[in-house]
Write a structure and sequence with these properties.
The complex is a heterodimer of chains A (445) and B (360). Chain A has 9 helices and 14 strands. Chain A is an alpha+beta fold. In chain A, the strands form 4 sheets. Chain A has a 5-stranded antiparallel beta sheet with strand order 4-3-7-6-5. Chain A has a 5-stranded mixed beta sheet with strand order 9-11-12-14-13, with helices on one face. In chain A, strand 13 and strand 14 form a beta hairpin. Chain B has 360 residues and is α/β, with parallel strands linked by helices. Chain B has 2 domains: 176 residues, D-Maltodextrin-Binding Protein, domain 2; 162 residues, D-Maltodextrin-Binding Protein, domain 2 (3-Layer(aba) Sandwich), CATH 3.40.190. Helices cover 38% and strands 20% of the residues of chain B. Chain B is built from 14 helices and 15 strands. The chains are: A alpha+beta (445), B alpha/beta (360).
């Protein structure tokens, strides 16, 4: 950046120098022109040929450039010198003209700027050009140009310095709230989740809000994890405690039938524990995926069919009737942002719940429906259902109904998909679980 | 000090007076010689040179005197001659000095005491004026008894016209064809006063005599051979008046051309440092005081009391400024026509030039 800035400064300086030189030349060329005019005005034809009487004022005029030396020559078209220094340098191929011709050259040890200007002199049978050549050393011009240059550069540097000062000031001012935020964050205890206390200027208000939002989400996530770990610890300990109790009781039974019954109970308890562990891991996976895996744009009914195929295979040993229906036209595709694994876990838990809490023969109906900009996934069972008053509480982990984690997992999946979760009653008198997904645009693909 | 008298009528006649060489014996050969070529009366600068040599015992000033025009021609002729031995060139003819400097002959340097020199008397840091010399009228007091003093140049012209019996053949002025300083005064007169040609013509009618130098005119005014001398160098006139009570010095009240004797160091000088010391001392307060006290020259430093100081209030001095403007009348064609005009006026009734061997 400094190099770029230096290049800009140098190009401006070069521009100023050429401008200053031009300006100096313009100013002092007028002196030369004025003198040349004054001299040409005094050229005349005498009986012996052309002659000139150099007016005193002409040289006085050039003498306004006080320290400069002056050379002049007045000559005719054929090169005959009327007066002045005969050996002045000439531009190449000069032809007398009444237009001024300026050129710079080195003469008599100094840089000299010359002017040639002609006048056609006629009278008394004579007609020819008379040319006046005046040269002036460049001392005053160069001093003038240098002064202009120095002043302009000084001004430029001053403005630059002031500009940089403003930039520095502005950046410092703009960043000072960030420094405050940084200080607050740096010395923050790991357990401190209070929002950043700062009165931010407009520019960083949204940043502060975002950071505070992040802190809140982080706190929530951490709270969730802590609660989850507490739940897991409690549930696992309880289940394993029960299992151990049953096994101890079985070992103490002398009666073989009683012992067999106890072992059977212990086996059931072990299965419950396995199921509970699976659910806990499933739930943890859903939460984890929600934080890490992006949703993909998919057709809901296709995902449901695929997932359901897998699930049914696991429940073939139960007496269960499954059905999947869609009220969409066969070629109509409705896209939803989905996490395929999440949907599968939700369905698996609903089926698992229905089979676990209901009585055989089980009946589970899945329905995909579209309304307005929403897509509904409905799962009906013929189990005992849940009272309306308890709908809110069953969505939490380890509710009093001891439904385990099933509906909590479904709830987490719904949240993950920004879907609405509605509990209701199925036509068969069991539970109806309805997830309402927002539809994304760009149907056909 | 070594002095060469060089007379333009007899170029080969050079008299070397090795005054200090004799005093210093063999040591003299180890000293650096500074050749001063000057159009100034030797007697006027001798006291100054003596003080300078006392102050700088290692420097031997070799002084050579010229007439103004002659000095100009010698220097101009040797413009490219590296063997030219001059180290300091001094002349009262400011226009000729400017012309030489304009040719690029001068070495540029800034003397220590340059601040004491007014701007009109220096040019390009090359040419420095050190004296203050108005052009004066000198008159024979006895002959002028009872006459009313003229106020202006026009009054002077009328006075000469009205008193033919007094002035006929008894006016002396420069032969400006021979004298550079005479030409310089005459051209400055022409610039200042458009009645100048009338005055010249009046002088011509009165049979004015023409001289090469101020001293010639002063000598003749002293004896009464002339009653009026016009445009005599004021410093010489006042010095002469001090010695001869018959000489009166008068400055006209409309304007008085005032020039400064100028000095420069030529680029070809082989003793530039010593030449600079010479000019430094010339411009210094001490050197200026020496000029005021011991010589006929009037120093330019206005803080130094001089014979002219009491008169300064009455004299409307016109200081001629050093610069390119002075080249105007040095143009060949212009000079030729100016001299032709002057000749036809001054020689009207056969005024004759009186070549003289004395320098300015």
């Amino acid at each position: 950046m400094a190099v770029g800035f230096a290049i800009i400064l140098v190009s401006i300086a070069v521009g100023i120098w050429s401008y200053a030189r031009d300006a100096a030349n313009h100013s002092y060329d007028r002196l030369l022109s004025g003198a040349a005019f004054a001299i040409l005005e005094r050229t005349l034809v005498t009986p012996t040929g052309p002659s000139v009487e150099i007016p005193y004022s002409a040289l006085e005029l050039i003498g306004l450039a006080e320290s400069d030396r002056v050379f002049y020559r007045i000559f005719t078209a054929n090169g005959k010198t009327l007066t002045g220094s005969g050996n002045l340098p000439q531009p190449e191929q000069y032809k007398p003209t009444d237009q001024p011709v300026f050129f710079d050259t080195h003469y008599s040890g100094e840089d000299v700027r010359f002017l040639l200007q002609g006048r056609f002199l006629a009278g008394a049978g004579y007609g020819d050009w008379v040319v006046v050549q005046i040269g002036q050393t460049r001392i005053a011009r160069d001093a003038f140009a240098r002064e202009m240059m120095i002043n302009a550069i000084a001004l430029l540097l001053l403005v630059t310095a002031i500009g940089l000062g403003f930039v520095w000031f502005g950046i410092n001012r703009a960043l000072s709230p960030l420094i405050g935020i940084e200080r607050q964050l740096r010395y923050r205890e790991p357990t401190d989740f209070s929002p950043i206390q700062i009165t931010p200027p407009r520019e960083v208000a949204s940043l502060t809000r975002s950071i505070n939002g992040l802190i809140l989400r982080h706190k929530k996530s951490l709270d969730n994890a802590q609660a989850f770990i507490a739940d897991v610890a409690h549930q696992t300990r309880t289940s394993l405690g029960a299992l151990q109790g049953l096994l101890e009781s079985a070992s103490r039974q002398s009666d073989a039938d009683q012992q067999q019954a106890r072992i059977k109970q212990a086996e059931e308890q072990a299965q419950r524990t396995i199921r509970l562990t699976n659910q806990l891991l499933s739930h943890a996976m859903i939460i984890h995926r929600a934080d890490n895996t992006p949703l993909a744009r998919k057709v809901l009914i296709d995902v449901v069919r695929t997932a359901f195929g897998d699930i049914i295979r696991d429940y073939l040993k139960y007496d269960t009737e499954f059905s999947i229906e869609s009220d969409l036209a066969p070629d109509e595709q409705v896209f939803v942002m989905l996490d395929e694994i999440g949907i599968r876990e939700a369905l698996r838990n609903l089926v698992d719940n229905a089979i676990k809490h209901g009585k055989a023969p089980h009946k589970i109906d899945i329905l995909v429906r579209k309304s307005d900009e929403k897509c509904h996934l409905i799962v009906d069972d013929n189990g005992p259902g849940i009272d309306v008053g308890k709908h809110a509480s069953v969505l939490e982990r380890f509710s009093s109904l001891s439904t385990g984690l099933g509906l909590a997992i479904v709830n987490a999946v719904a949240e993950r998909h920004h879907a609405e979760l509605i509990l209701g009653q199925s036509p068969a008198g069991g539970l109806r679980v309805e997830m309402v997904f927002p539809v994304v645009e760009g149907g056909q693909e | 000090m070594t002095v060469f008298f060089r007379r333009f009528s007899c170029v080969c006649a050079q008299v070397a007076v090795l005054v200090l060489a004799m005093l210093w014996g063999t040591q003299a050969f180890a000293r650096v010689q500074v050749h001063v070529w000057s159009a100034t009366d030797t007697s006027a600068v001798e006291p100054f040179i003596n003080v300078f040599e006392t102050k700088y015992p290692d420097i031997d000033v070799v002084y050579r005197e010229f007439n103004t025009s002659e000095l100009y021609q010698v220097v101009m002729y040797n413009i490219d001659n590296p063997k030219m031995e001059a180290d300091v060139i001094i002349s009262p003819a400011m226009d000729l000095e400017v012309k030489l400097v304009n040719e690029g002959l001068a070495y540029r340097f800034e003397p220590e005491n340059v601040d004491a020199i007014p701007s009109w008397a220096q040019w390009r840091n090359e040419l420095y004026g050190f004296s203050f010399e108005p052009a004066a009228l000198v008159y024979n007091k006895q002959a002028f008894e009872g006459l009313e003093s003229p106020v202006s140049h026009t009054d002077l012209s009328n006075m000469v016209r009205d008193n033919p019996e007094l002035f006929s053949g008894k006016i002396g002025t420069y032969d400006i064809r021979q004298s550079g300083i005479g030409y310089f005064f005459a051209t400055q007169d022409a610039i200042q006063n458009n009645q100048t040609s009338r005055l010249t013509e009046t002088f011509g009618r009165a049979g004015a005599k023409l001289f090469c130098c101020s001293s010639e005119i002063l000598d003749r005014v002293a004896t009464g051979e002339l009653v009026l001398g016009y445009n005599v160098i004021g410093s010489y006139a006042m010095a002469a008046a001090r010695e001869n009570p018959d000489i009166g010095v008068y400055f006209l009240r409309d304007y008085t051309i005032t020039m400064s004797r100028t000095a420069f160091v030529p680029k070809t000088s082989k003793a530039k440092y010593q030449a600079q010391l010479f000019i430094d001392f010339l411009l210094s307060r001490e050197g200026q005081q020496v000029l005021a006290n011991n010589s006929a020259l009037i120093p330019i430093n206005q803080n130094v009391e001089t014979v002219l100081t009491p008169h300064l209030e009455d004299i409307p001095v016109f200081r001629v400024k050093l610069g390119i403007g002075l080249l105007g009348f040095q143009d060949e064609l212009k000079k030729k026509s100016f001299l032709e005009d002057w000749e036809s006026s001054i020689l009207w009734s056969g005024g004759t030039a009186s070549p003289s061997p004395q320098p300015d």
